[in-house]
Amino acid sequence: MKIFIWERLLVFSDDSGCYSFAPRKPRISIRGREARPCMIEVMKTYKFKLYSAKRNKKLHRQINAAALAWNHCVALTRRYYKRFGKSLPKFKLQKHLTKLKLRTPYVYLTEIGSQALQEVTDRLYKSYERFFDARKNGEKYGLPGFRKVRKYKSFTLKQAGYKLLPGNEVMICGQKYKYFKSREIEGKIKTLTVKRDSVNDLWLCFSVEAEVPNVVNSRPGHPVGFDFGLETYLTGSDGQRIESPEFFKQNLKEVKRLNRILSRKQQGSNNRDRAKRDLARLYRRITNQRSAWQWKIARELVERHAFIGLETLNIKAMQRLWGRKIGDYGFSDFVSILQYAASKVGTQIVHVDKWYPSSQLCSACGYRFNGTKDLSVRRWICPHCGAEHNRDVNAACNILTEALCIAGKQQRAGRSSVKVSQC
Question: Of the residues 20, 244, 253, 284, which has the fewest C-beta atoms closer than 10 A?
């Protein structure tokens, strides 16, 4: 029997090739006479929907003021660079915005708090940083540009400007609002973001810093590799298949009907705005259905398996070929959800390079067969060893093998706390 210690997991391998995983005991910190598991700080976000009320118009005005401030800052930074050939310092821009509040044409800046105004400039300069970082790496990323006021989404308050009240009330900039309090907020609130969606509903997003025990539940599990596909959403190396409900396809007739209704409405009319909200509400329902299904599948997978190998997909290239279906599957969102769910239970996820030829290799002997480049080939026989393969299952087996090899390379390179012993 072999025993691998990989990060926080003990991996047991018997002669039959079966693996089982169990967590190592967490470190114990002693304070005085008490001992408890090691605590780690995490950031969480609690999202609540605001009650619909006439007083919400003030929040909409504040979001519009943040949009106007963004456009003004974009114009100033561009004008400053064109005139002086260098970027405008952020703190100089913030001081300038403070002086503008005293002038009549810019009285809208007083609608939002000073910290919310500073956060607008923070967003702008973070966008510039991402632009220059992407430029260094040879990636495409556009410069921050002007935004339509009605499409601007949110503003953020940091230490001041809001206060939680007993029950389900919150005070924002001197005005009380009620929200649907579905659960208690645990931890220290760092920021409050007021968001506006395409249906014109308002949401409160509390960013919270909380301490959680660094403990992983003990459970057995087998390693598995998954292949993303168009016919089958997920195909596992152990033969399991997960089909996607394709929620957009289920609601396609209703989407077409609402689009026809929208196209008949007069530009700028209230009826057209109402038709836009109806269509946006349907899109939001489809998104919520897909997200709920992905969370359910992700939790089932991480509870069943302690090691998961995934392939890295070029989503943009796939969207150019199969746009609607790729968007309906939501591969990128599912991978993010899976990684978050895995971090909660200690499941390890390893990504295989996107150029790895998982569909062309024989999982039995390793022979590379170029005939599988044609996507219509669903089953094939290896010319070297004669093994018959299903395209997706064979690719999933190769992904698992490569993921385990990557883990072994990390062990030898010393980038992981992996140790191997024989018993």
Answer: 253
| SS (HEC) of the chain | CEEEEECCEEEEECCCCCEEEEECCCCEEEECCEEEECEEEEEEEEEEEECCCHHHHHHHHHHHHHHHHHHHHHHHHHHHHHHHCCCCCHHHHHHHHHHHCCCHHHHHHHHCCHHHHHHHHHHHHHHHHHHHHHHHCCCCCCCCCCCCHHHCCEEEECCCCEEECCCCEEEECCEEEEECCCCCCCCEEEEEEEEECCCCCEEEEEEEEEEEECCCCCCCCCEEEEEECCCCCEEECCCCEECCCCHHHHCHHHHHHHHHHHHCCCCCCHHHHHHHHHHHHHHHHHHHHHHHHHHHHHHHHHHHCCEEEEECCCHHHHHHHCHHHHHHHCHHHHHHHHHHHHHHHCCEEEEECCCCCCCCECCCCCCECHHHHCCCCCEEECCCCCCEEEHHHHHHHHHHHHHHHHHHHHHHHCCCCCEEEEC
Place of tokens 């967003």: 123
Are the beta carbons of 352 and 399 closer than 8 angstroms? yes
Neighbour tally for 226: CB within 10 Å: 26
Q: Nearest 10 degrees: CA dihedral of 156, 161, 164, 170?
A: -80
The model's pTM is 0.80
Q: Are 194 and 204 in contact (CB under 8 A)?
A: yes
The CA-atom distances, in angstroms, between 340 and each of 38, 299, 336, 370 are: 20, 10, 6, 36
Beta carbons of 144 and 128 less than 8 angstroms apart: yes
What pLDDT, in 10s, does the model give residues 383-414?
Answer: 888 888 888 888 999 999 899 888 778 767 76
Asked whether the beta carbons of 172 and 161 are under 8 A apart, the reply is yes
Residue 155's alpha-carbon distances to 62, 69, 159, 326, in angstroms, are 8, 11, 14, 31
- The 10s digit of each residue's pLDDT in 54-105 is 999 999 999 999 999 999 999 999 999 999 999 999 999 999 999 998 898 8
Place 360 in a pLDDT band, splitting at 50, 70 and 90. Answer: confident
